[in-house]
Amino acid sequence: MKQAVRQPDLVTDVAEVLITEEQIQAKVAELGRRLSADYAGQRLTLVSVLKGSLPFMADLMRAIEVPVQIDLMEVSSYGGAATETSGLVRILKDLSSSIAGEDVLIVEDIIDTGLTLNYLLRYLRGKNPRSLRICALLDKPARRLVEIPIDYLGFTIPDQFVVGYGLDYAEYYRNLPFIGVLKPEVYERA
Amino acid sequence: MVDKPRFAHASEAELARILDYYEVSWQYEPRTFPILWNLDGTVVESFSPDFYLPEMDLYVELTTLRQSLVRRKNRKLRRLRELYPDVRAKLFYGKDFKALMLKYGRFDLAASLSGLEGQTAKATTLARAAGASPVPPSPPVAAAPGDGGSAGSGAAPAKPARAQRKRPSRGTRRRRGRRGYVSGAESR
Question: Rounded CA gap, A93 and A142, in Å?
Fold first, then answer.
């Protein structure tokens, strides 16, 4: 359900910068080094979940020094009974190639409730990868319903409404280069 | 498969739909935990978390934004953790649920979670007997999930069937009645 929001203001709608562009890039470089060491001598398939993890994926893949393949997935997001006919998650875009026997790393922007990732883990395990791990830029544990083992984590963040670096509110703010806290009045106007 | 439960609040029905959507199995109020006894061993207060997620072995209690209910539920959760340390339970605050609704584009429901449309409390306060004891007269043994709430030996009485359950008379309940919200999908 897309909401009719007022024109977003990328400057004034952000209450504070939670994680700067420099901090993100430093963390991405660190994660890249760890992944390069852990997968040394192997090849790796990165699976990004659209749309929020695109910037993270783009930066992370360039920080990894072992051969990588990339693939993209998109799953339907819960939109309430009024907008869903099946009542179940749908794969809007599946993997382009087989991951059977491959070392796979799911690249996620943020883990919140864990519901989407839990579903994806089950789905991808069914495709028989050699290994399946998770790399998340952000972990927001306050609302966790499903415990997810995060193998590589960037930052643990407090329970705040964050946008930027791929994260959106009503599909906007994804192009901010930092992670910012959205002013409550922006979404409380909804 | 079980019958669709009648939820006490729209947010509970919505969470049930979300869990169904992501294929996470759940049970609605499957277990009642006695948390306060009087001196003769009668249970005077108990706690029935809204949801049990068997795959996660996690109980989830939803709150609305009404602060008085949040305080009461926080207290109950603390008691639950003291008395049943092996039970994993989580309070899902109204602000968290509101944020979740915003994330999923449910702006209508998020806006309705003002707290005025409050959740009817599930405190099963059977009596406010004088001398209520915070210590159970015998080790608390609560009913296992899915067994209908039958209690173990000692002080914990069996949870009556929903239709027979005596609930405290509450002003809000009298004014509004128990609103029934039925999930659009069945529990698995």
Answer: 29
